[in-house]
Amino acid sequence: MTTAPLQLTTDEARRIALRAQGLLGAPDRRAGVRGVLRRLGAVQLDTISVLARSHELVPYARLGAVGREAVESAYWSGDTAFEYWSHAACVLPMEEWPLFAFRRRALRARGHRWHRLDDRERSVAAVRERLTAEGPLTASALGGAKRGGPWWDWSQTKIAVEWMLDTGEVVCTRRQGWKRVYDLAERAVPAELRHDDLDDAACLRRLVGQAGAALGVATEADLADHHRLRAAEVAAAVADSGLVRVAVDGWPERGARNRAWADPAALA
Description:
The chain is of the alpha+beta class and 268 residues long. The protein is built from 13 helices and ten strands. The protein has helices spanning 10-20, 32-40, 54-63, 68-76, 101-110, 120-134, 139-142, 156-167, 185-188, 200-215, 220-226, 231-237, 264-267, and strands spanning 6-8, 43-44, 81-85, 89-93, 137-138, 170-176, 179-184, 217-219, 244-248, 260-262. A hairpin with a 2-residue loop joins β6 (170-176) and β7. 37% of the residues are buried. It holds the Pfam family AlkZ-like. InterPro entries: AlkZ-like.
């Protein structure tokens, strides 16, 4: 028997979403910036800066004026976070490393992201050798990120190290002057997290559930956008993600993308 979705008013949905995002209620200052990151599951990086960069504004909006050094230290010190492709280039809690195994596998199967290597085996081996011998390095330190043309005219070294990041051999655990600092995953990711054991279905279930917890209440389109999943992936995973069906006054209900779901903890 199908259970009717729980009905929410727009005011209830608004409060649930704001509280889930850490924008309503007392800030958790003890957990600090790392707590904000764990709560949201992803904080987008962006080169554009007017008042401050986007990844700095996110904790400021939730914790107040915690300071740039505190933000950078919380994101990039120790093994608490890494950078990878989520909503876009994002800072992610390190415990989410296994959840992106589905994306690493998909990129390996595709064979490239934006650029292709002339000699993948040789270029990747050269980067691996440098990182093994010298420790974390930027693309510039590895030999240069560009060939001299526009910003997307990457050198073979840059293409190689980005391919290794895409597929999980290399990880970015900090930025230096806005440049990615690359290290071998075997050195940077804790051993208990450094695996691709979860199958695609398990990865997607957990990412959809995490998105729902971060958003509080959301449509399937919202859930997909949080980690840039496909609509079909969300539709297949959401029923087993731990989220519950709701209906929100005034929200359109036609089509799967408009179906609304909520985090049970946010409804309690």
